[in-house]
From TrEMBL:
<dbReference type="InterPro" id="IPR035669">
    <property type="entry name" value="SGNH_plant_lipase-like"/>
</dbReference>
<dbReference type="GO" id="GO:0016788">
    <property type="term" value="F:hydrolase activity, acting on ester bonds"/>
</dbReference>
<comment type="similarity">
    <text>Belongs to the 'GDSL' lipolytic enzyme family.</text>
</comment>
<dbReference type="InterPro" id="IPR001087">
    <property type="entry name" value="GDSL"/>
</dbReference>
<protein>
    <recommendedName>
        <fullName>GDSL esterase/lipase</fullName>
    </recommendedName>
</protein>
<feature type="signal peptide">
    <location>
        <begin position="1"/>
        <end position="24"/>
    </location>
</feature>
<dbReference type="InterPro" id="IPR036514">
    <property type="entry name" value="SGNH_hydro_sf"/>
</dbReference>
<keyword id="KW-0732">Signal</keyword>
<keyword id="KW-0378">Hydrolase</keyword>
<dbReference type="Pfam" id="PF00657">
    <property type="entry name" value="Lipase_GDSL"/>
</dbReference>
<keyword id="KW-0325">Glycoprotein</keyword>
């Protein structure tokens, strides 16, 4: 059997009431808020706002049904965390860099792409991979910046400039990052975890340095989330798999499950069952994420010392997501293992929005009635309701180092 879960074919990861019990009061810094003119985002399906949907096959409903009322290139029923960041900073939602139809980049661009990794891949799109690794996303930004400058340096006024940031605004913009889960999922069971983490960190910090050399000075860096808590990583949903791999594609990789032979059984037991915590999350997977996060924070602190004229904020996304998962029922959600959209029964899996013949019957994998009650949208990505909850939790700075809200994240700290 091939990989149990590979990349979703087209991409790639509700309005929720205010929850005062979990939203810490936002600090009130004495200094004024940062005047960011633009956002430039780098990431995977957790922040892709249309890259993979524009580059390959378009997203389909019920993706996007809650807020956009149409498939909007996002791996959710509605808005992503990057959308709430844009709202918080007073910007329109970010356009995907590769989206050529009716696009404005006046206030930034989104280079994030579903299925993407920090490291280079050996997979094509049709194998569940993405050509848009962090290295390529950075290269796209460098080209975007250079070509934008040409518009403004021409003797004659160029009508295209209205849709692009001014050259001087690149240095004043905020650069956001949310990437790494796919690397961990792809690497588990294939590579020593310490070697994996070391390679991830080296490649990540290299791209940060390139962006710094390009003039970037404000970095908002999410650590990676609790991959072992994604429902389709839990034994409840993947202990058995009857779905051929070529028809079962997701936008976030997980460890492979090999042919059920005596020789492979031990590895399968570790990869799929493993030890689970009180929330049903796979401890082995989460521990790798925690280890990477710890070393990522150390790396960010070193960069902070190396670049004293830059502001680098490390954001504990893992804690925010795990807090929601641990308190799901108290916060008005169903059990965090439940999946809103898709068909996952008796070892059969049908992607959200798709149809399949199972035991002679056509199954349509539609949405649940009320996505706002679910944390997981499709087993891998979060619902808009969950994304909103998490965004409220992190944007006030209470889970950041330094502890400043995103609106003040341009402030340098020793």
């Amino acid at each position: 059997m091939g990989p149990l879960i590979t990349e979703f074919g087209f991409v790639l990861l509700l309005i929720l009431p205010w929850f005062p019990s979990v939203i810490a009061e936002e600090p009130k810094p004495a200094s004024p808020a940062c005047d960011f003119p633009a956002i430039f985002n780098f990431g995977d399906s957790n922040s892709d706002t249309g890259c993979m949907s524009s580059a390959f096959y378009p997203a389909i409903l019920p993706y996007g049904q809650t807020f956009f009322h149409d498939a909007a290139g996002r791996a959710s029923d509605g808005r992503l965390i990057i959308d709430f960041i844009a709202e918080k900073l007073g910007f329109p939602y970010l356009s995907a860099y590769i989206d050529s139809i009716g696009t404005s980049y006046r206030h930034g661009a989104n280079f994030g792409a579903g299925s993407s990794t920090i490291r280079r891949q050996n997979r094509t799109y049709f194998d569940g991979g993405s050509p848009f690794t962090l290295e390529i996303q950075t290269a796209q930004f460098v080209q975007f910046k250079a070509r934008t400058a040409k518009f403004f340096n021409q003797e004659k006024e160029n009508p295209y400039t209205v849709n692009f940031p001014r050259p001087e605004e690149f240095a004043k913009a905020i650069y956001t990052f949310d990437i790494g889960q796919n690397d961990i999922a792809l690497g588990m069971g294939h590579q020593d975890s310490q070697a994996l983490i070391s390679d991830m960190l080296e490649n990540f910090l290299k791209q940060i340095k390139i962006l710094y050399e390009q003039g970037a000075r404000v970095f908002w860096i999410h650590n990676t989330g609790p991959i072992g808590c994604l429902p389709l990583s839990m034994p409840k949903h993947n202990a058995n798999n009857n779905t051929p791999v070529q028809t079962f594609k997701w936008s976030l990789h997980f460890w492979p499950r090999k042919e059920n032979t005596v020789e492979n059984q031990k590895e399968n037991d570790i990869a799929v069952s493993g030890s689970v915590d009180e929330n049903g999350c796979v401890i082995y997977a989460n521990n790798i994420a925690k280890d990477f996060n710890s070393k990522l924070k150390d790396g960010v602190l070193k960069l902070r010392a190396q670049y004293p004229d830059a502001s680098l904020t490390y954001v504990d996304m893992f804690s925010a997501k795990y807090e929601l998962i641990s308190n799901s029922k108290r916060e008005g959600f169903v059990d965090p293992s439940e999946i809103c959209c898709g068909y996952h029964e008796d070892g059969y899996h049908v992607n959200c929005g798709n149809k399949a013949m199972i035991k002679g019957k056509e199954i349509y994998a539609g949405s649940c009635k009320d996505p706002s009650k679910y944390i997981s949208w499709d087993g891998v990505h979060y619902t808009e309701a969950a994304n909103r909850w998490i965004a409220n939790r992190i944007l006030n700075g209470s889970l950041s180092d330094p502890p400043l809200p995103i609106t003040h994240s341009c402030k340098r700290t020793p």
